[in-house]
Amino acid sequence: MIAKAVENILEEQQDKFLIPAELVANVLEDNRLDHAFLVLTKVKYAKIPVLDNKQHFKGLLSLAMITDTMLGLNGIDASKLHDIQVKDVMQTDVPLVKLPYDMEKIMHLMVDQAFLVVVDDNNCFTGILTRREMIKAINHLAHELDKRYLVEARDQLKA
Ligand code: AMP
Known about the structure:
The protein has helices at 4-12, 14-17, 33-43, 63-70, 86-89, 103-110, 131-148, 154-158; strands spanning 18-20, 27-28, 47-51, 57-62, 71-72, 75-76, 96-97, 115-119, 125-130. By secondary structure, the chain is of the alpha/beta class. The protein starts with a helix and ends with a helix. Bound molecules: adenosine monophosphate. Adenosine monophosphate is lined by residues 19, 23-25, 45-48, 114-115, 128, 130-132. Keywords: CBS domain. This is CBS domain-containing protein. It holds the Pfam family CBS.
């Protein structure tokens, strides 16, 4: 369990965590890999969400997932990219987050994920939580904690 004071201060910041869906670059599961390759190259993000045409979250796509399909015995072959769809190569085992946020779970997941996908109860894509925004919230917490709560070392209390 994380300390209640920490949880409270982080929760106050939670409206600022989310990058809303309309600001998040994405591709559709039916898009061809040549299109997805262009999108990923242009947006310069390592990995982006994959949606269906009704805004449901389907998976994640990285450049490496695309370039992997280009590797052949005779070097790199991009000619097949138009014949493969995003849904054929995307990552589907993705941890998902829903509101209300469970701050402890989010912090655990963010150890290994640069961003977390937020969905609603219908699996519609709501946005992402990024490590960057989370680190800003933790920085705020570090500055606020002893202004708002009495923080004393246990050793001092014993002395
Ligand atoms: P950051 O913590 O801001 O570096 O973001 C971590 C990761 O989240 C990036 O590498 C991207 O994979 C993803 N990301 C952040 N912002 C966006 C965005 N606007 N659209 C798509 N993906 C994003």
